[in-house]
Design a protein that fits this description.
By secondary structure, this protein is α/β, with parallel strands linked by helices. Helix content is 40%, strand content 21%. The strands form 4 sheets. The protein has an 8-stranded parallel barrel, surrounded by 8 helices. It binds 3-methyl-2-oxobutanoic acid and zinc ion.
């Protein structure tokens, strides 16, 4: 095979990051973007983990037509049946079943003997095959498992009909040379290895997830499991954009084709970041704001003379636009709609477009030049809590004078009631959030507050992310505005809307026993 399968697990393993839990609508929105990105397999969730995740997988299975939709399942009857049920409406479906195979996990976590684990793996694959021809089997903690035992389990899984064999580096312990060798030896030693596609699934605890995955590819692996922005538990998973661009840019080394539409990479990164509230660090490869910025004079001079002197990829090939002024105050709805379509932003309904156009007009009154990034932010603001905005910002005024304590007045709606809140604070942002909190009384803890400039220059909009925690539940809110105090108020209110929404937020695996 000269094709590399891209298996995206943003909606399953990525969602396991504390605070990244998503609603069904949010997962569906990301799944549709992953389909636009043309990933081969979307791991939509873990059906048996909660009713919310089950429903999310069901909706994604019904909506996605171009990618295979997959659900995770432990190696037991209930999990596999739930996965099959959730995937029933998919055009192309995969069940991904797993069991731990390392001595440590088998003895301490599963309290099972190797023979029992082998038998359970065998039965799980056999059962999964009753529902679909496309069954993936994973050996959890595979990189710390014994080679001989791994060979026995994998041979049995393939005999039972597993079509993909995945060797996870669950705790991010592997190093490239050793992990690559493990994959090669397994492929050489398992007698029926040629009947399955081999896959890698790496965590980034030592910062080597991408390198480990690529080491697997150089040793015959033909599927990489990864997430947008490298989202995932602890230090995250292999980053989709990095492995895809590595394989494409270094075709001379890997010699493989990938089906990804790379021009959708930045849009996917922004959508995931906006929905989860996990900002992308500016120096992140491929999707960071500085990934293509040349600040040094020598580099700028070189790039102007011949682009390839300092650029190995083209920004536009991964979907970066160039801070071009696209629209202004006088632009009409038709021009707005056209640009939105060109940016690949899905419009769910005419009402959504009308609401976004009204916000655009409002922004254009306050900001002379509207860039693509501003339009994208407008939609992410609208999209986060589109239909059930219980709290809504009406107006904000605040004052800070050197030597005096800043104060803020925030008028906002709670349902039909208009509330007038005032407070002072250590700074204008603090005063604004305290004013809102003084009336809402949510009692939540602020875990994170961050501001990013959406475009360059002092006239850029600020995008604020806040993360709130209350009674074990963590939510992220985002807000953007040319005035960063207003962006902060919007982000806080956005997070409150999520905190008080009735929609179940999905938290797969976290509460599950092995
Ligand atoms: O990291 C891991 O081992 C996993 C498996 C369930 C595939 O996520
Ligand atoms: Zn994982």
């Amino acid at each position: 095979m000269d094709r590399l399968i891209i298996f995206d697990t943003t909606l399953r393993d990525g969602e396991q990051s504390p605070g990244a839990a998503m609603t069904r609508e949010e997962k569906l929105r990301i799944a549709k973007q992953l389909e636009r990105l043309r990933v081969d397999v979307i791991e939509a969730g873990f059906a048996a983990s909660s009713n919310g995740d089950f429903e999310a997988i069901r909706s994604i299975a019904a909506a996605v037509r171009e990618s295979t939709v997959c659900s995770l399942a432990r190696a037991n009857e209930r999990d596999i049946s739930r996965a099959a049920e959730a995937l029933a409406g998919a055009r192309s479906k995969r069940i991904h079943t797993f069991i731990a195979t390392s001595p440590l996990h088998m003895e301490k976590k599963l309290r099972m003997s190797p023979d029992q684990v082998l038998e359970q793996a065998r039965q799980a694959v056999r059962l999964a095959r009753r529902f679909t021809d496309d069954v993936e089997f994973s050996t959890e903690d595979g990189s710390r498992s014994e080679l001989d035992f791994l060979c026995r389990v994998i041979e049995a899984a393939i005999t039972e009909g597993a079509t993909t064999i995945n060797i996870p580096d669950t705790v991010g312990y592997a190093v490239p040379e050793q992990y690559g060798r493990l994959l090669r030896e397994l492929r050489e030693r398992v007698p029926n290895s040629d009947r399955a596609v081999w896959s890698v699934h790496c965590h980034n605890d030592l910062g080597m997830a991408v390198a480990n995955s690529l080491a697997g590819v150089l040793n015959g692996v033909r599927q990489i499991e990864c997430t947008i922005n490298g989202l995932g538990e602890r230090a995250g998973n292999t980053s989709l954009e990095e492995v895809v661009m590595a394989v494409k840019t270094r075709h001379d080394v890997f010699g493989l084709e990938v089906g990804i539409d790379t021009t959708q990479i930045v849009a996917s990164s922004k959508l995931v970041s906006n929905i989860t509230g996990f900002p992308v660090q500016p120096n992140k490869a491929v999707v960071g704001a500085n990934a293509f910025a040349h600040a040094s004079g020598i580099h700028q001079d070189g790039v102007l003379k011949a682009r390839q002197t300092y650029e190995i990829m083209r920004a536009e090939d991964v979907g970066w636009t160039t801070n071009r002024i696209v629209l202004g105050k006088l632009s009409g709805r038709t021009a707005f709609r056209q640009r939105v379509q060109e940016l690949g932003i899905p419009i769910e309904s005419e009402e959504e477009l009308v609401a976004a156009f009204a916000s655009f007009k409002d922004l254009a009154d306050r900001k002379a030049e509207i860039f693509d990034e501003d339009i994208q932010a407008l939609f992410s603001d609208e999209a986060v809590v589109p239909h059930n905005e219980y709290f809504r910002l009406v107006s904000l005024s605040q004052g800070s004078t050197t030597g005096e304590r800043p104060h803020a007045r925030v008028v906002f709606r709670v349902g039909a009631e208009e509330i007038d809140a005032r407070s002072d604070g250590d700074g204008p942002v603090d005063a604004t959030l305290k004013a809102i909190e003084s009336k809402v009384g949510s009692g939540c803890e602020l875990l994170l507050y961050s501001v990013n400039a959406i475009t360059t220059g002092t006239e850029a909009q600020g995008e604020v992310t806040v993360r709130l925690a209350r009674a074990g539940r963590i939510v992220n809110g985002i807000g953007s505005d040319p005035d960063i105090i207003a962006a902060s108020a919007k982000a806080y209110i956005n997070a409150l809307n999520k905190l008080y929404t009735t929609a179940e937020r999905i938290n797969p695996q976290i509460s599950l026993a092995p």
